[in-house]
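Protocol step 6 of 9: fold each sequence in the batch and record its structure tokens directly after the sequence line. For illustration, a two-sequence batch is reproduced in full.

Sequence one:
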Amino acid sequence: MEKSPVLAIVVPCYKEEAVLHETHKRLSLLLDKLIAERHISQDSYILYVNDGSTDQTWPIIKDLHQNALMAGLNAVKERCDVAISIDADLQDDVNAIPEMLERYREGCDIVYGVRRERKTDTFFKRSTALAFYKL
């Protein structure tokens, strides 16, 4: 029987007090579903990382669980088989995580998502994102 991978979802947070509870709710439901379906180990978890927020983000993180992306990934690298980083503002589709896990099972070392639509982004953000993906 194949061992289910331990998944760490790393969530860098900067001034996310307005959305953090909803983000946690959705990610927790997804983790529970993936564990129940045996796609991931019961040892899987979410790691929220405060990125210098000046609002109530850090107290909310402390209440939910316990500097940003690299600190989070470094914190989880020895404790998981798979790490996924997702923005706390829910602009990233949490429902893409199962497909990312499938790519991992197919042998991919790195999987990243690309937004299909960028309608709400500013011209600058859209241009820099497109340039990044072309590189």
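Sequence two, same batch, same settings:
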Amino acid sequence: MKHTSTKIIGITGGIATGKSAVSSILREKGYRVIDADIIARQVVEKNQPALKELVAHFGQAILDDDGNLNRQALGDLVFSNPQFLEDLNRITHPYIFDRLKKTIEKDCLHYDFVFVDVPLLFEVYDELEEWDIRFHEIWLVYLDQDRQLERLIKRNKLSRSQALARINTQIPMDEKKKLATRIIDNRGDLTDLRNNVEEILSEFIH
């Protein structure tokens, strides 16, 4: 990535650990947050090349009646088969990383700090480096697996086995703790989370 004095901070966690809540708090405080999930949704919109490739690979069953991606159908498919998940990533990641890199470079012209919310940052770390997407620090939104499982079941209305299948495709949270620069503890309520974010911001920025 082009030389920049902007500090680029990765925000990551695990499924249902609270990354979106942390990103919302950062935005409320006026910081620029790039959401890789939003980019991932944009690249598979109707008529986009990535969606055409997915349909060619997985078939029309991943589309709804209007020709848009049926995310539930695709999710049920790829989380039941590791090879399908690998195929999904192989097809979509180049589109996602290309747009992510261009967005970061553009924002570095205007902001001193840019936060980049990448749900599976550690899982795709090598690929990010290949695209020359690098971070000054990586902050992990932490939740123990019992609470993570409980929140995922409630949020996505999944069975326990479905939720575990999704969690088990990711690096365990305790392993991610060892890799992160800073830990944002989300085992409490929203007020606790806000306080934890503010404390880390104070340490990092001042």
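Proceed to step 7 once all outputs are recorded. Observation for sequence two: The two ends are 26 Å apart (CA to CA).
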